[in-house]
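Blinded run. Sample ID left blank on purpose so nobody reads anything into the name before looking at the predicted structure. Input follows.
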Amino acid sequence: MSDTGQGACERVDLAAGEPGAALGLLQRESGKHRPPASAGAVGVEGSGAGGEDLVLQHIPFNFGHTTEKVAAFGSGEIAMAKYYAFEGVLSMNMPREERWAVVNRTYRPGAEVWGHSNPDLFETSKVTGCPLYFTPGKYWPKDIAQSYFGNKTIFGMLRDPYERLVAMFRGNLGAYGGWYPEFIPTCDVNGAVRKMMTDYLAGEIYAKECCFVPQAEYFDAPFGITLAVDNRRFPTSLNEIFADHGYTDLHIETEDILHVTGCPEVWAGDLDCETKALVKQVYARDFELLRERFGYCDQEENCCIEGVPLMCPSNLDEKRKTATRCA
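Blinded prediction complete.
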């Protein structure tokens, strides 16, 4: 998951059994439902609270799962438990129609079906080999892209490349973002990020569920992000956008955020100049987008997300004094 940890409650183990049995863990809620697969529509209804013009392009490891969870189930501990159960069910091998049935029976009234919670986006991209929900919109089949994005404002989080790669190392999630057992015991974030970049440059462009695809590709037309969310200010930045667009029932609280927890004292400032040079080579367009959209012009700046628990070292002030800066 995008910066996922254990969250507010433990995951529900739904690996065994039938989807119907697992759904017993989820309360059925009345109200607005998503259209069934046979209707050929995707998420066409808005939030029911005035907002209906946004649609999420999920960039991996940019808090997309947190955003989808709050859009689907709201905030709080009960919403978190429902989300974990829901994710377990959707991960089972089932037809698209059955996934839509799960959505229709579990989402809260007025929910948005965004990103990897949307059954129509489980198709594998012929370009990337990743599910559509992690693939840049420009590579989606046109009919699915038009149905999902439509004429809505496409939003997505834009994250500092150094900090984002540090989070992937700290997550150590295997198929999603990578698994780095040789670097974990000593929390060698520099060695892990250097390996990520050398593997990418060796041709592993779409590896690990497309986590290493430059964020800029998710901004490319057609069906690219037009509304960038400053991930450095998450969740405040996204809550401001929800409010501005009339989504009065969507608000991400601190306890809603799924985030990494491993090696909590490492950060972007621990990357050496050689590793940072590789990151700048791979993510040149991402740094340019950060400059264009948010005015972050210093490519040597070391940052972390201070509004999210455990995303900054406990001794951040001291870390800043000794952090690596390259010419």
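Unblinding after everyone has recorded impressions. The chain has twelve helices and three strands.
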